Amino acid sequence: MRRRPLAALFLLAALLCACAGPVADAGPPAEGVVRIASYDFAENQTLAEVYAEGLRRAGFEVAVQHGIGTREVVFPALEQGVVDVVVDYLGTASEFLQAGAGSTSHDPTVLRDGLAASLAPRGLTVLAAADAEDQNGFVVLTDLAVRHGMTTLSQLAALAPQMVFGGPPECTERRFCLPGLREVYGVEFAEVRSMPSRSATVEALVTGQIDVGMLETTDARLTDASLYLLRDDRSLQPRENVVPLVRTEVATEGGDRLRSALDGVSAQLTTIDLIGLNRSVAVDGRTPEEAAARWWDGR
């Protein structure tokens, strides 16, 4: 199997995405180790650990590399053999590859098959999608929502010109974030601020630095009565079922054992599980690895 060391990821990150998250220092893994990469936010890091443990239980050696960046970094890393597996989300991954592809259907099976067809020529295999789903959500303080009688994103449009928005750096480019809010809802904010993390977004909301923030719909902090998730009443967001992407070379070498291990995780994973995993990290203070171990202990 042709492999490139994880050290090559530094060069990829520098060339492809100067704003990418930090890359941990890691030497080249031993031959035969399955290398799982995560995006630079906590939920995806936890999912990487959950799927990694599934592989370990099937007898594979696994190395997990956290927070290597956005899709602009991760997809080339997959294609060039720097990493082997990433856990992604159906709609956003489809949209990243081809504008409009993430919104072609609200049937996860159709989206998964379309994503598989797009990635096959690039040497990547799409495995079974989980029932677990996590979409972009747009959040305000409950007091503000009550004061303005605002429950939906449609109602946000009239107030947005006086508001400050906070979200991840890539939000300005992603179809299902600011561009979609403009196109589908006519939402234009007075100011947009880049948030380094979801925790920073919540802190900025609570302290009044921003008025609207982007969080994932599975963020456990949304159970806090002070935060209000605005309803996506025009269905901007696509289906975002969790789905593993694997280098085809690795999928072929790993055979049914590798596929069954990853598909087995997907078969168990629910949206409620995602919320619990996120709570374990964001509220209870566990590391992604600890949260994943706790999830597996409950199987």
UniProtKB/TrEMBL annotation:
Pfam family, one: OpuAC
Higher taxonomy: Bacteria, Bacillati, Actinomycetota, Actinomycetes, Geodermatophilales
Cellular component, GO annotation: ATP-binding cassette (ABC) transporter complex
Source superkingdom: Bacteria
Signal peptide start-end: 1-20
Keywords: Signal
Annotated ABC-type glycine betaine transport system substrate-binding domain residues: 34-296
Protein name (database record): Osmoprotectant transport system substrate-binding protein
PROSITE patterns recorded: PROKAR_LIPOPROTEIN
CDD domains: PBP2_ProX_like
Organism the protein comes from: Geodermatophilus normandii
InterPro entries, per the entry: ABC_Gly_betaine_transp_sub-bd
MF terms (GO), sorted A to Z: transmembrane transporter activity
Keyword hit for Signal: yes
DNA repair is among the record's keywords: no
